[in-house]
Amino acid sequence: RVENVLVSSFKISNVLLDVLVYCYHHSDLGMMMYFKEKQREKKDASRIKRPLPFDQRTPLSVLLPGMNVTGTVISLTAFGAYVDIGTECDGLLHVSQISNEFFVEHPKQVLTPGDEITVKVRTLDVDKKKLHLTMLPDDVVEQQQAMRGAEQDERIPLEEIYVEDELWGELRRVTDYGAYVEVGAVVDGWLHFMDHPAFGWANGAHPSKYMTPGDRVRVWVSDVDHTQRRIKLTANRPSHLPGPRRAL
């Protein structure tokens, strides 16, 4: 058996042994599917099911800047964590707002999906349904706002956005083939009409019949092109992720 040869000839870990054995017994296509499945398992581990449906949630208008709230960490990205505090949209806890005691390179250093945490409302926009949270002391937040302006829009670099990241967005412009979605990144994302949940029952209707500028949508990143600086989105939850298949 190839396992015995590898173990007797080399001192390797069990994980590496599993990979080598798999590669020995499977084709190139099999290897590609194997590693893709491992990537999916890693992504699934960074998400958690939501405790409350979105149609049973509290409007953002009840919140005030500086208010302390308790929430559940739903998902982690390179630029921060999305926290469910029971409102109509998740709050973004940017990686720079997690700790003032040490540098946080990635939120996974401190947080895990499912964690119950206490955060403070930093900024919110009821009309655009944007909510930013912080875990920093008041004096640090005030100092940050004084340095860059409280209303400055924090744009997420393209390099910090990955496939299957879950984001909140606002439809900006609707075309014959879909809509551009503002997701807080340096560029707007593109949502093709076939990737919208309403496409299945629209019966060939123009995208403007079920996509309206200003609508808030929950989307997942399907592709990031760093060369062309483009983000492709889908409003259909990937089937292997927890939660309902079609949810805006």
From TrEMBL:
Q: Enumerate the InterPro entries for this protein.
A: NA-bd_OB-fold, Ribos_protein_bS1-like, S1_domain
Q: Which residues form the S1 motif domain?
A: 66-136, 164-236
Give the SUPFAM superfamilies listed for this entry: Nucleic acid-binding proteins (SSF50249)
Q: Name one GO biological process term.
A: translation
Q: Which PROSITE patterns match?
A: S1
Pfam families in alphabetical order: S1
Q: Which GO terms describe its molecular function?
A: mRNA binding; structural constituent of ribosome
Q: By its UniProt entry, which SMART domains does this protein fall under?
A: S1
CC per GO annotation: cytoplasm
What function does the entry list?
Answer: Associates with the EF-Tu.GDP complex and induces the exchange of GDP to GTP. It remains bound to the aminoacyl-tRNA.EF-Tu.GTP complex up to the GTP hydrolysis stage on the ribosome.
Record PANTHER family: 30S RIBOSOMAL PROTEIN S1, S1 RNA-BINDING DOMAIN-CONTAINING PROTEIN 1
* Protein's UniProt name: S1 motif domain-containing protein
- Taxonomic source organism: Amphora coffeiformis
